[in-house]
Amino acid sequence: AKMATAEGESSVHNVSDELFQNFYTEVKQIEKRDSVLTSKQQIDRLLRPGASYFNLNPFEVLQIDPEATDDELKKRFRALSILVHPDKNQGDPDRAQKAFEAVDKAYKLLLDPEQKKRALDVIHAGKEYVEHMVKEKRKQLKKEGKPLDVEEDDPEMFKQAVYKQTMKLFAELEIKRKEREAKEMHERKRAREEEIEAAENAKRQREWQKNFEETRDGRVDSWRNFQAKGKSKEKKNRSFLKPPKVKMEQRE
């Protein structure tokens, strides 16, 4: 579990602020240029470096508003899945397959009410965190007697901050999930090893008991023969050691 924690934390740190900034900026530029995106652009977006964490947010994968209706979700999935489907991208089928799997996974997750609620909770938590940080910044500026303007006053900067914080929250939850999964796997493995060891001990005990019972009669007979020989030898020895009878002398 400790190893899983170290690897997980390392993975999150690898998604550096610079990488995030580049990813966010490029995606938003493409979105402004083309709201639909071409097949290649969508595949590139879904398979960017760090995408294993960026794609944890199903709403970002499908590029759909969290408040979208089920019908809007279905239409968006259909349009996006067609764009990245391997059949439509035969020049790059392997990457297209991975992108399609990411889209399919996000869609299925949002079809599950419980999973969708969890995703929405993470998004709301990210937004609340940024709002809290903005308030704290203003308090500090006020304390220092400085203007209360912060960069998050710009709607785009606020949106970017929420996006970044949300991504980090999704990543942290994924790390915890992997840690829990690794721990459970380790416990199952240990329980299985103990079960096998107990079974082997029981088998050895049964074999010993069986062997003991099968050889018992032979041991008893050997012991009886040994005792019989011992008694016979003792009796024989007594006959050799028996003193001669002394004749009584007659009185004069």
From TrEMBL:
GO CC field: nucleus
Domain J stretches: 57-124
Classification via SMART domains: DnaJ
Locations listed in the record: Nucleus
Keywords assigned by UniProt, alphabetized: Acetylation, Chaperone, Nucleus, Phosphoprotein
PROSITE patterns linked to this entry: DNAJ_2
Compositionally biased intervals (Basic residues): 230-239
Cited Gene3D superfamilies: DnaJ domain
Primary location: nucleus
Sequence segments annotated as region (Disordered): 181-252
Residue stretches of biased makeup (Basic and acidic residues): 181-193, 200-222
Pfam families assigned to the protein according to its UniProt record, in alphabetical order: DnaJ
Subunit structure as annotated in this protein's UniProt entry: Interacts with SRPK1. Interacts with HSP70 (HSPA1A or HSPA1B).
Primary role: Suppresses polyglutamine (polyQ) aggregation of ATXN3 in neuronal cells.
Name of the molecule in the record: DnaJ homolog subfamily C member 8
Native source organism of the sequence: Astatotilapia calliptera (Eastern happy)
